[in-house]
Design brief:
Belongs to the methyl-accepting chemotaxis (MCP) protein family. 93% of the residues lie in helices and 0% in strands. The protein is mostly helical and 563 residues long. The radius of gyration is 82 Å and the shape is flat.
Length: 563
């Protein structure tokens, strides 16, 4: 039997046991529930009805005595109403109980209740008539007999209901005890059976595993003897596992045989590769030496081409600089020629303007000098005013004398005469100052006239001649600038042609240098690649040695297995 079937069987048994336990518990709980339902829906309501019936019968009896005592008609009416309500309630309780259990005691209660109600009517009637003694006699007669029978029957019914309740409760307890015993029995059976199944399954699993473990340890201790097999005759998964391990060992044995055969072939191939790599390394080293010599020659050629190119660049720079300077010289010569023309034209214009200014200034100066002679008239007029002020002063003096002679009448005239005298004195002083200033102005005008004539003579004899010489010099300077401009332009054209020729030489040398550099770089790359090939050949040789060593180690390891 397989482990799977064993486990399925064990768990199926346990599940069935649990299902039986559950079903038994459900049935028992249903029985207990039914018992509780009977107690709750039948017994307890009946007990309540009997107790209510007993209570209400006692109340009616009490109301009868109370009615006998009353004398008020209204109170009697109210009490009778309550008695009627109790009567209806009691009759309803009797009918409900008869529907549940119409036994002899409920029949006794029903019969005596009719008798009691007949006597009750008589008692109420006697009480209404205020026949208290007659009413009490009736209460103690047949009414009391019927009432006693009713209460006795009610007591019997109460005891019977309690007995029924106790019987139902005892039945529930009995059911609980039976179910408890069944559940305990099922649990004990489950524990015992589960333990037995557990031990059986553990033994059926661990024994083959332990046996297979011992076989594998034995295989390991024998140093890799792949000819032995694990002999386990179990028909479960452990047996299948042992068969799979045996198949695995057989596959490993086949692989080891193939690896052993391939290792010998790999070893022979590695030895051949080692010989080929030695020859390849020698040839590559010779090629590397030749390429390095060729690279060195190409580098020298490239260096020479670079030197020629550098010299050509310097010559080109010098030629370009010379052409630039010639061009700048041509521009400067042209500017000099233009400035000479401008200077000559400016000199001519200045000469014309100067002559015009000279003529105008001379005319204006002569006119001003003629007008300055009017200052002499100011001097004459000043003398005249000075004479007038002297005469006015004398007249003021005479007037003052006459005013003094006139006394008080001439005081006002004396004041006027005094003011006139002061004015005459002030005018005299002012005219004296004017004469001084006029004399100074006249002297300055004479000096200015003399200086102006000197300047006009200098301008006429010297400045105008200098302007003529400046015009002649500007004309000659312009002719020289044109000559220098033509000379520099010719020199610039020659320098540009030389620059173009040098650029062609430089371009050719640059192409030669580029070609040589590319050849040198290509040769250098070839040398580097060959160097890398040498390195890789050495690495391949090392890896081949490692492969040979690993092949020997693999062969040694494979030989440990017995196949």
């Amino acid at each position: 039997m397989t482990i799977k079937k064993k486990l399925i069987l064990s768990f199926t048994f346990l599940l069935l046991l649990l299902a039986g336990l559950g079903i038994t518990s459900i049935i028992s709980l249903k029985t207990v529930d039914n018992t509780s339902t009977v107690i709750d829906s039948e017994i307890i309501p009946q007990i309540n009805r009997v107790q209510t019936l007993n209570f209400e019968v006692a109340r009616i009896r009490s109301h009868e005595f109370q009615h006998i005592i009353l004398t008020d008609a209204a109170s009697m009416d109210d009490l009778e109403k309550r008695i009627n309500d109790l009567q209806s309630s009691i009759e309803t309780l009797i009918k409900e109980y008869q529907e549940y259990d119409n036994n002899e005691y409920i029949k006794i209660i029903d019969t005596n209740w009719s008798i009691y109600m007949t006597e009750h009517k008589k008692i109420i009637q006697a009480s209404r008539q205020m026949d208290t003694q007659g009413a009490l006699t009736l209460v103690k007669g047949d009414s009391k007999v019927a009432y006693d029978k009713i209460t006795n029957a009610i007591t019997v019914l109460v005891d019977a209901s309690k007995s029924d309740s106790a019987a139902v409760s005892a039945k529930g307890d009995s059911t609980y005890s039976s179910v408890r015993n069944i559940i305990v029995l099922i649990i004990i059976i489950g524990i015992i059976t589960g333990t037995i199944l557990e031990l059986y399954i553990i033994h059926s699993i661990t024994t083959p595993i332990r046996k297979m473990k011992l076989r594998l340890l034995d295989l390991v201790q024998k140093g890799g003897d792949l000819t032995h097999k694990i002999d386990i005759k179990s028909k479960d998964e452990i047996g299948e596992l042992a068969a799979a391990v045996n198949q695995f060992i057989a596959n490993i044995r086949t692989i080891i045989i193939e690896v052993n055969q391939c290792t010998e072939g790999v070893e022979n191939a590695v030895l051949s590769v080692v010989d080929y790599m030695k020859d390849l390394s020698s040839n590559v080293e010779q090629s590397s030496a030749t390429i390095q010599e060729l690279s060195a020659g190409m580098e020298e050629t490239a260096a020479a081409a670079e030197e020629v190119n550098s010299s050509s660049v310097e010559i080109e720079n010098a030629t370009v600089s010379m052409a630039d300077r010639a061009q700048k010289g041509a521009i400067s010569a042209n500017e000099i020629s233009n400035r000479a023309d401008e200077l000559m034209q400016s000199a001519i214009n200045s000469q014309k303007v100067s002559k015009k200014v000279y003529e105008n200034t001379k005319t204006n100066l002569e006119t001003a000098l003629e007008k300055s002679k009017a200052i002499e008239k100011i001097s004459v007029l000043s003398d005249t005013i000075l004479g007038i002020s002297t005469q006015t002063n004398l007249l003021a003096l005479n007037a003052a004398i006459e005013a003094a002679r006139a006394g008080e009448a001439g005081k006002g005239f004396a004041v006027v005469a005094d003011e006139i005298r002061n004015l005459a004195e002030s005018s005299k002083n002012t005219v004296s100052e004017i004469q001084k200033v006029t004399a100074e102005v006249l002297t300055s005008v004479n000096d200015l006239s003399s200086s102006s004539r000197t300047i006009m003579e200098f301008f006429d004899t010297t400045v105008l001649k200098d302007y003529d010489e400046m015009v002649n010099t500007g004309e000659a300077y312009g002719n020289d600038g044109k000559f220098v401009d033509d000379l520099v332009n010719d020199f610039s054209s020659t320098a540009e042609e030389l620059t173009a020729t040098i650029e062609g030489i430089m371009k050719a040398m640059s192409e030669v240098a580029t070609t040589v550099n590319e050849g040198a770089m290509g040769t250098q790359e070839i040398a580097e690649k060959i160097s890398e090939i040498v390195t890789m050949v050495e690495q391949v040789k090392n890896e081949t040695d490692i492969s040979l060593k690993n092949s020997k180690l693999l062969k040694k390891a494979v030989n440990k297995f017995t196949v």
